Amino acid sequence: MNIKQIVIAAILILFGYIFNSSYAQTDRNVVKIKVYNSLDKVYAGSEFKLAIKADITEGWHINSNKPHDDFLIPTKVTIDSTKGFKLKEVIYPNAQDVKLSFSDKPLSVWEGAIYFGAVAEASNDLKPGNYYLPIEVEYQSCNNQTCLPPATAKDTLTIEIVSNSEAISEINKDIFNNIVIPNSSSVQNNESNSSISSILEHSGILLSLLFIFIGGLALNLTPCVYPLIPITIGFFGGQSEGSTKKLFFMGSFFVIGMAITYSVIGVVTALSGAVFGSLLQNPIVIIFIVLVFIVLSLSMFGVYEFQLPNSIVAKAGGAKSGYFGAFFMGLTMGIVAAPCIGPFVLGLVTYVAAKADPYYGFLMFFVLALGLGLPYLVLAVFSGKIKKLPKAGEWMEAVKHIFGFILIGMAIYFLLPLLPKSFSGYLLPAFMILTAVYLLLFEKYGNKIKGFRIFKIVFSIIIFGVAVYSLIPSQKGEIDWKPYTANTSLASLNSSKGMIIDFYADWCIPCKELDASTFRDPKVVRTAKDFLTFKANMTKSLSPEVEALRNKYNIVGVPTVLIVNSKGEEVKRITGYVDANEFLKILDKVE
User: In this predicted structure, what is the pLDDT of residue 184?
Assistant: First the structure.
């Protein structure tokens, strides 16, 4: 700060004391604030969101949290940390640059009604009861002629602390829709979410949509889309007698169906705050998906053929069956793809939820789904080449049958969460064994073509081997998981190094991949012995117990793995699949 700036600041403040003394005596507070909680109740040791609405008197402004000149006093949000609460993060609104008569350059200020967001944490040792939390906004106000001395606006929030067994609910959603507040517990663990929100907030609509489209393409690298690849090739490969043009339009219908479903699921989930992909815990939805797979598989066995009404077929230039089936299958695949949650989608969900604009949200998720579905359009066109290797013949019927078995296998896979666990673990392997036996002994189509016969034998042996292997009890050790209950507390760490909480759902494919590989790695199992390890079942995400758990830990999607240190502080939040090496690196950093 140079001498000129110091003199200007002193003159402005002194002039403010004298010229505005009458104003200061009648109503010194240019700013009035009202504080809102995001939850009706709060658990001890948990985090919650605050929204602070500040009304600035007309004709006045206050400096932003980062004013352009050093001599201007920034606005700051604080709480009384002696009351058992601490402030972990403050989200300030975007400021505007305003040119005033006493300044050589525009100032960074706020005017009118603005909203601050904050993430606060309740202490672990708070007992159930009501607590009063004072919140202050320190500011300096100015008009076009002068600046008033620094002042403080205050409000007190009543917070009810309850035991972990009680359900909590979100409140004041209309207020929080004005603020983008990260869902994770700490700033460090939310760099991806907040950065995505920041990118979208400061980019134009076209750049934002391009960014989201690329993100959709990247989602194809997540584990739970793997089953979609053989299904897609199977469906289109089984109907590829037509031209590449026909396959392209069928693939387009498939992508549009996926985009519509994914958009609706994404927007509804974002605005409701439910666990992303929770539709797959609804038995009706699961049965619907199973029936779709079975219906599609029957067409592979020649039971029927998809065909549009003749009038539509004529308008489409004589296109035959497949368009309706492709669109219908795309609708289903959108639901299947929904649980592929990752940091990118978490950030987008947070952003859309804050916007609270269903049209804007639909557009965002529609473009995301277009990026997700584009590779499947390529697969649809490519699948037609499978039939063009040799000339058409009986072997094509065998290809259809193989793809039909794949679709039935997927139907069984999605049906498993509805079946008793004592029985469900054997159903899919048994089906795979029966399929392999049928293809080897009873499927005669294509046996006259030596190359295809070899392929069929090798394929059958592989699925037979995988099925038998899956029935063999695993010799690998596994983490000693305990079920998470309402009485589990982050404070009950005793002498352990920390705590691992795995939030999973029965319909979540990446959750199963974590269990099968990462959590069974010998090094991970040994390292995890130093931690308390809990599994939190989020399958029935609409139940009050899971809703309370979701609100307590701000769980947006599964899998989510929380790593907590010995002090009860969350140090890392993992969303999506990570391999054993990456998981070990995270655990090794916990102190």
Answer: 39
CA separation, residue 503 to residues 105, 174, 488, 569, 575 (Å): 52, 28, 14, 17, 10
Could you report the average pLDDT of every consecutive run of 10 residues in the chain (591 residues)?
51 46 51 92 87 92 84 87 85 84 77 91 88 92 82 92 76 80 43 53 72 79 60 60 69 82 67 56 74 79 59 41 70 62 63 64 82 78 56 64 81 79 80 91 79 84 87 73 75 70 79 83 90 86 75 78 83 82 88 71
Rounded to 5°, angle at Cα 553 from 535 and 115:
165
Please say whether the beta carbons of 182 and 190 come within 8 A.
Answer: yes
- The length of the chain in residues reads 591
**Residue 351 burial class via C-beta count within 10 angstroms: exposed 0-12, middle 13-18, buried 19 and up:** buried
Provide the residue range defining the domain that includes 553.
Answer: 482-588
Residue 366 domain-assigned (yes or no): yes
Beta carbons within 10 angstroms of residue 145's beta carbon:
13
Tokens found for residue 439:
């293809």
CA 498 – CA 16 distance, rounded (Å) = 54
Q: Which residues pair with 187 in a beta bridge?
A: none
> How many alpha carbons lie under 13 Å from residue 520 in its C-beta half-sphere?
11
Structure tokens at 459: 């394929």
Verify that 144 and 266 share a domain, yes or no.
Answer: no
Contact indicator for 222, 375 with CB cutoff of 8 Å: no
Domain of 8, CATH number, reads 2.60.40.1250
Say how far residue 454 (Cα) sits from the centre of its chain: 44
Beta strands in 225-278 (DSSP E): none
Kindly state whether residues 212 and 340 are assigned to the same domain. yes
Domain count, the chain: 3
**One domain for residues 234 and 346:** yes
pLDDT of residue 103: 65
Distance CA 27, CA 426 (A): 75
User: d(Cα 344, Cα 212) in Å, to the nearest integer?
Assistant: 9
Q: What is the pLDDT of residue 308?
A: 45
What tokens does 400 get?
């259809």
Nearest to 513 by CA among 280, 290, 192, 222: 222
